[in-house]
Amino acid sequence: TPDPVSALLAQPPADPNVALLRRLRDALEAL
């Protein structure tokens, strides 16, 4: 099942926080 973060990021970036979440998730995946 897709995690909530993935579902959130699949939505259009209507919220400026989406960009931040994307950056955060990229950083976590890079670990």
The tally of structural domains comes to: 1
Number-wise, the strands total: 0
Label the structural class. Answer: mainly alpha
**Tally of separate helices:** 2
Backbone CA Rg: 9 Å
The unreliable regions are: none
Helix content: over 70%
Straight-line N-to-C gap: 22 Å
The string of secondary-structure elements, in order, is HH
Shape: flat
Give the rounded overall mean pLDDT: 78
Percent of sequence in beta strands = under 5%
Largest sheet: none
Protein name: Transcriptional regulator
Organism: Streptomyces spongiae
Describe it for me?
It comes from Streptomyces spongiae. This is Transcriptional regulator. The longest helix has 15 residues, at 16-30. The N and C termini lie far apart (22 Å). The model has no long low-confidence stretch (mean pLDDT 78). The protein has helices at 4-10, 16-30. The chain is mainly alpha-helical and 31 residues long. It has one domain (1-31). It is built from two helices and no strands.
